[in-house]
Structures are given as structure tokens and as C-alpha cells.
Amino acid sequence: MEDREIIALFFDRDEHAIAETEKKYGRYCKYIASRILFNEQDEEEVINDTYLKVWNTVPPNDPPSLKSYVGMICRELSVNLYEKRTAQKRGSLETMEELSECETGGDFTDELALKDALDGFLVALSKKHRAVFLLRYFYNLKVSEISLKTGISETSVTTLLSRTREKLKVYLKKEGIDV
Asked: FRET pair for 29, CA 20 to 30 Å: which of 42, 70, 139, 157?
């Protein structure tokens, strides 16, 4: 079933929308959750919560890409659960620590402005840089895994990520985004 048809089911409040979303994007959600949580029960919890959140947010949202929308929600819920599970241990995702280098020192208040700025930043990157950035910070792959997937040496991946984070920091400042 095509994404627009599945979204129409959500708008019609037809419960088949969830089954169709699971059929089409269940493996994708499993991949995202497993890259962050490394616990099958937590992964299943997040995947089920993902479908519920999609059900509760479509409508009013009408995502242009259902795959991106579902993936974004799954990743957000996975990171939130990871942080909750590791709060007592003072742990955090290594990639989140890396991205903290992009902070501009302000008080973050406008989530939509940040999203728009990130979208603009990603569009401006070359295809290779965007792919490496997303593999690291969206899919939470290790540098060695990115190297294998892209054929770029680990040293080059590390350098590319460092330079891209610096560009992101400059871009956010230029856009007036304080995070």
C-alpha cells in the first residue's frame, strides 16, 4: 500500500492504518530502535508507542513522507527511553554528547525553528556528508559501521563528522538559533 493511502486511513480513523504502517515500516522501526536500545523488550515497547503516537498525531499532521515521520518518532521515543533507562547510571548516547559541541550557548525555546534550520542545513550538505551525518546522528551507527557502509576510512569519517558539527554550529548561529 502506498504512503498516501495509509495516511488517508489515518485521516479516516481506520485502524487498518496501524497494521499497514507496521507491515510497511515495522522492520525500519526495529532497525532504528535496535541501534539505540539494544534490548528487545524496550525495542518492542518503543515500536508500539511509535504506532500509537502516529495514530494520535495523524491527523492533524499530514506528513509528506510517512517513512520519515514514523522514523523520526521511533528515534525520538528510543532516545527518550534510553535516557530514562540510563539516568540512574549517568549514561548518555555518545552521539548526543558529540552533538552538544554544536550548542551556541543560548536558551533553546523554538523547536520548530530548530527543525527548519536543521532541514536547511542538511539540504545544503553534499550527498556524502549528509549520508554520513545521518548515519551517525539519526541511525546512531558507530564510526566503524559508517566506514564499512560508505567505503570511507574511519579517520576520514571522524574528520568529516567533526567538520560537519563545526559547520552546524556556525549555521545555527547564523540562523539565530540558540541551543
From this structure: 157
